[in-house]
Amino acid sequence: MPVIATSQNALIIASSRLSTPIKDVNDQQQHAEELATLLDELPCKINLIPFNPFPHSGYEKPSRNQCMRFQQWLYDLKHTATIRTTRGDDIDAACGQLVGQVKDRTKRHARYIQSIQIDAD
Predict the structure, then answer these.
(1) Which stretches of 1-121 are DSSP H helices?
(2) Are 101 and 88 in contact (CB under 8 A)?
(3) CA 9 to chain centre
(4) Cβ neighbours, 10 Å, residue 26
(5) 85, 94 in Cβ contact below 8 A?
(6) Of 41, 48, 114, 115, which one has the greatest count of Cβ atoms within 10 A?
């Protein structure tokens, strides 16, 4: 991590924080203000990673323009923010999109369902 300031007795280290904007859930100016307030005392860079929708999630990805507005609101509040470029979403392989598409070779899900049924009896 990069050192951003030093004093006689302290060393302040910059870090990164992630935020995942989700359309109509946490992508509005109020949410940028809340995030900025939460991070005001923590010198950090904010990485905005737009939500990658997957089947049955019920959530959507915010538009590129909305992500850019969110980034600008954070800049206006004196926070550095970047928007991560999404790759793989055209083939449903972006971060978070493979959930539920992987074959469960361990049969973990089946064992879990069986344990619930046993507990219910």
Answers:
(1) 29-39, 64-76, 108-120
(2) no
(3) 34
(4) 17
(5) no
(6) 48
Q: How far apart are CA 78 and CA 68, in angstroms?
A: 15
Q: What is the CA radius of gyration of the chain?
A: 20
- Distances in whole angstroms, Cα of residue 80 to Cα of each of 30, 52, 118: 17, 22, 51
Task: Evaluate if pTM is beyond 0.85.
Answer: no
**Domain boundaries along the sequence of the chain:** 16-120
CATH architecture of 16-120: Alpha-Beta Barrel (3.20)
The per-residue pLDDT string of the chain (121 residues; one tens digit each, 9 = 90 and over) reads 555 555 566 666 668 999 999 999 999 999 999 999 999 998 899 999 999 887 788 999 999 999 999 999 999 999 999 999 876 666 656 555 555 555 666 777 778 788 888 766 5
